[in-house]
């Protein structure tokens, strides 16, 4: 197997093959070139999150997280004693970031803002203009952007995927990614941290050195997976990706149409990326439910359908539904959800 080498060593061609391949892959979408020295390999994107939160967790500092968001950020920041401040994502505007809210909660101790695009859990994909506004807001506030782009290129709606690293000359960006989602190999556990910082701000602030120090005391991804990455990136055909996008697009369309046909739940924004959609519960119609947790538990018990309570993501009385399953199973699931909502709907007078 060619290019096998540990992710921590940069001194020989074998060790650099994988980070170099990832740098070239990410550079395709950027107006500047990344090098192997800008890439730090991790055991999946989960470890990439762990590394960045640990690096940024200084006494008295805080970080801005989206609401709703990916719950691992919450647990890692709590573990690292890093204060969390939440900004809202606005469902009526395609889950865009509430930038006025961001400016209201940031202060001199705020170290970074996390932007998840394409979004888990919302299924949104941000436009170039909105990403530019996020970057400019971060610049004004003196914030680092942590760009969680693990679902990069899984965009099948009106907005194409654009990495926020495009604005790396405006504000320093640290991109977190993985092969797990786009290539559909979650068990391989290979992710990365990429410093998208052509102005060298992160290097001057010794953030790069802190990342490397943390990486050096943690485990590498499996060596044989590292060795396979250059060939996987170079030789995966576009048809493979297009088939995945077609399947996700069809599933998202079906999901959105089925939700519109079910009284008691609503979807304010059609999913355009990732594998998820956020759905609002109408508890004024659904009889006898205390909240989203109650709804999810009873749906699982009565219909054997599992959806995630929105309260786990920071948004009470919503649920997250994944559509990354085969169409017949998805159809069956929504028939069960419809039956459940009809059975528990309040009688109209």
From TrEMBL:
Catalytic activity: nicotianamine + 2-oxoglutarate = 3''-deamino-3''-oxonicotianamine + L-glutamate
InterPro entries: Aminotransferase_I/II_large, NHTrfase_class1_PyrdxlP-BS, PyrdxlP-dep_Trfase, PyrdxlP-dep_Trfase_major, PyrdxlP-dep_Trfase_small, TyrNic_aminoTrfase
Short name of any one Pfam family annotated for the protein: Aminotran_1_2
UniProt keywords, alphabetically: Pyridoxal phosphate
Keyword check for DNA-binding: no
Domain Aminotransferase class I/classII large: 14-326
Organism: Oryza sativa subsp. japonica (Rice)
Requisite cofactors: pyridoxal 5'-phosphate
Protein name per the record: nicotianamine aminotransferase
Record GO biological process: amino acid metabolic process
Keyword Hydrolase (UniProt): no
Enzyme Commission designation: 2.6.1.80
One Gene Ontology MF term: nicotianamine aminotransferase activity
Family of the protein in this entry: Belongs to the class-I pyridoxal-phosphate-dependent aminotransferase family.
Gene3D superfamilies in the record: Aspartate Aminotransferase, domain 1 (3.90.1150.10), Type I PLP-dependent aspartate aminotransferase-like (Major domain) (3.40.640.10)
